[in-house]
Amino acid sequence: MNAPRKLKVATTSLAGCFGCHMSFLDIDERLLDLLEFIEFDRSPLTDIKHCGPCDIGIIEGGVCNADNVHVLREFRANCKVLIALGACAVNGGLPAQRNHLDLRDILAAVYVTEEGLAPGTQIPNDPELPLPLNQVHPIHEVVRVDYFLPGCPPSADAIWKFLTDLIAGRTPHLGHGLIQYD
Amino acid sequence: MKNTDAINAVLKRHGNDGTRLMQILRETQEALGWLSPATLTAIAAGVNWPRSRVESTAGFYSFFHTAPLGRYRVLWSDNITDRMLGNMDLMRAMCEKLWLEPGRVSTDGLVSVDTTSCTGMCDQGPAVLVNYRAITHMTTARVEQMVELIHNQTPVAEWPAAWFRIEDNIRRADILLTNAMTPGDALRISFARGSAASATLDEIKKSALRGRGGAGFTTGLKWEACRNAPGHGDKPARYVVCNADEGEPGTFKDRVLLTRQPDLVIEGMTVAAWIIGASKGFVYLRGEYRYLLEPLNAVLARRRQQGLLGENILGREGFSFDIEVHLGAGAYVCGEESALIESLEGKRGVPRNRPPYPVTNGFLNQPTVVNNVETFAAAALVAKNGGDWYRGFGTAKSSGTKILSVSGDCVQPGIYEYPFGVTVRQVLEECGARDTQAVQVSGPSGICLNRDEFDRRIAFDDVPTAGAFMIFNQQRDIFEVVRNFVHFFAHESCGFCTPCRVGTTLLKNLVDKIADGNGTRTDIDEIFHLNRLLQTTAHCGLGHTACNPLLDTLEKFRPAYERRLNLLKFVPAFNLDAALSQARQMTGRDDAGAHLEAAQ
Amino acid sequence: MSESSSFILDDQEIPFMPGQSVMQAALTAGVFIPHLCYHPEFRPHGSCKLCTVKINGRPATSCTTPAAAGMAVESNTPEILDKRRTLLQMLLVEGNHFCPSCEKSGFCMLQALGYELGVVAPRFSLLYPTRPVDASHPDVLLDFNRCILCELCIRASTEVDGKFVFALSGRGIKKHLVVNAESGKLADTNFSLADKAAQVCPVGVILPKRKGFAVPIGQRRFDAAPISAHVDEFKPVVSAQGERP
To answer: How many CB atoms neighbour CB C239 within 10 A?
Structure first.
């Protein structure tokens, strides 16, 4: 009998700090066990720039700018299953703490009225730069999301339990100690 | 200081009694324009209440403002019937002429324009309240004149008197509205039945009269329960309260009853007082009917002179009863009887946990009867003519008549009194409704009937109603009707319980999403999910019935939703391209990368 | 205890004393019913609706419903758990609940109930309200972002402290906590850290200053065992008549 096909997994960090990715790496040597069952597509681990057809997409971070929207849509279009990994993807997290401020005030404060700015400083308007959204959004407000794994970051054990459940064909269940919001 | 004098005068008029806080706040605001932080502090000191409790009450009601809203406060009634008569276009025109955004105050602090929940002028809309005075039949010409008057700072009291004329529009009258009873007759005949009030209570019970406010509780049983309930504490008492908080959108029959038959209503209250043993009563009049306060007070004064109120009524030793009119301040939830009592006590209009019910623990924790305006008027007729006579009208299970407030798509909107059992079709024919698509009976919290149901009857055992009867013809978009109702409930939720406070807002957002063309099947499923939650876990009837318009019309007018749905499985609830607007504005960019497609 | 003074809660017989609510009887018997606005030392409020159960097939708030003999009460059923989950999700989107920076994380009942009921996602769009904090008081910080409007601080300040420091203003989704001062600032009230009202917040609104994150993760109140295992801490301290001591 042939060995089962490895599941393709893509990961990315949008408006996040890569802390969830670090926590993912914290599963340590179990990563090798995992690689028996999965292979990575687009991910900071592979440096593949665009997502191909995948079984599982893992999104860290919320949506704070236009580029985040494009990347998130690429993942949704290519991944059978999309997972919101960590507080920022789940509810906006730290970046969303700016949501009660007007973006125009923020840009003006940083690039115009701030003391000590170099002469000629202006709000960056290079078309290469993605524009920020008025507010930061959790990813379920922009695309359909299949699974949520909260935590800031979710612990390595939580990520391990979640992924091994998923790979084994079980609905992921965290239980006390693994489900955490902080 | 002038402000202090004004506040003190109001406080003195109300004996520095905190339970009269609603009246104190309203009269102070009428004198000073708004309720400033210092004003609230002064009032709190005056009634010897913690300031936090005074602020708590002031912040609850739409018609109290703790921020200045201009010397002219224009509020456009925003019931669906006002919308059908073009209120939104007129409000926009007014705002343009005043260089003003709705909800904002003009920079010179002169004027603000906003919407308000139905003001009960649906048969003569579009209607506005200007400084809480009702004006009907708004037109483009009236808007222009009004803007002129505001610009010239003409006092509202000097505006054209014709604008403030409220029509009764009685199109069909029956026993209640044709009645020409001599004031006092119901009392005299009641007294003649015997010195024990139980004889008249028996007549009320025999009449099978049921409450006209919507719930339909048997009046005789309610009065008997209150009569038998012991008073509490060292000052036991019982109270009679007339619920004239007619806040259900599309209802205006109590306004007409209080205009045309105030004696009947007050006599009904007085009979109730005699039966339950009360010496004090209140009419809780909705703030939108502020203009009725002086006429009602005049009727009360006349009845005192006639010996029909006050000490030893009609010479009957020991029977003393008097009535006061209390004004509400823009809160639909106060139509719920326990919320109304909270409001009468000067508090936020939040429905109480029940039991206990008001008949045993009501106003100031004393046994209290709360009935609708129409119920008291009918009770007066029963007291005069007897229960058997009253049962001669209507049907076996629904005795008497029902006054309908007819509005919407018909030739003759207005007041129609029918014996119970009348079919919806007959009402539609007699008011000149053509090509009718749907009728919303009993307001947003009631039932939406489609044309297959027009042979159903207005009666407690078929289509019960508190009185609203809003007609929509084939040209109307039922989805917009529902959307108006969903916004109404979100605005009027008291916020006490989680499901209603948050759920009505989530429902509003979902319906707006569908209106914007971004709704999906998933959103329809979510509406059902939320409605099931509200129906089972909300604290009071507002939350339970807030789902009715959605559930009713999703069942009967599903295409009205479906034709707006997006084919995609998922569409964001917010506009992604608009979410880049502020960054575009600040960077001056408009290239392709500075835009996002709404959905993909 | 006589045979008649008991009811059935999810197949378990629960004895009760006259005057006890369904919630009080269940907690006394060691059965946890999720709740936020209920507190053993205060009269029931019935606003959060987390404790909704079905009694003889009809939904009811277990903290305000008096126990009666022979009742059939359903609590731990898929249908009711789903409703409780949705109610929690409503509270989570209504306020700004950013647990990673909250001093009450690990002690918070909202969070603990989220864990208990397996709430992993907000489900709805977040409302992100603007709720400035009040840091005016020398000893206490008020972070309104986390307020769930349970009114426990109001009840404690009114009934125990006799100070009326807290009250509600606004209506509906705009309902919010206010303090007893013309300035609107806690520093201008007579609030003190020793007040009962400073001890009862089930979430992270009322916080002592200079005392954050004192307990390491892993040793906090709800770290070791889920909130349902803490049922003894919620047992009523009221007399049989349901009156406060």
So the answer is: 11
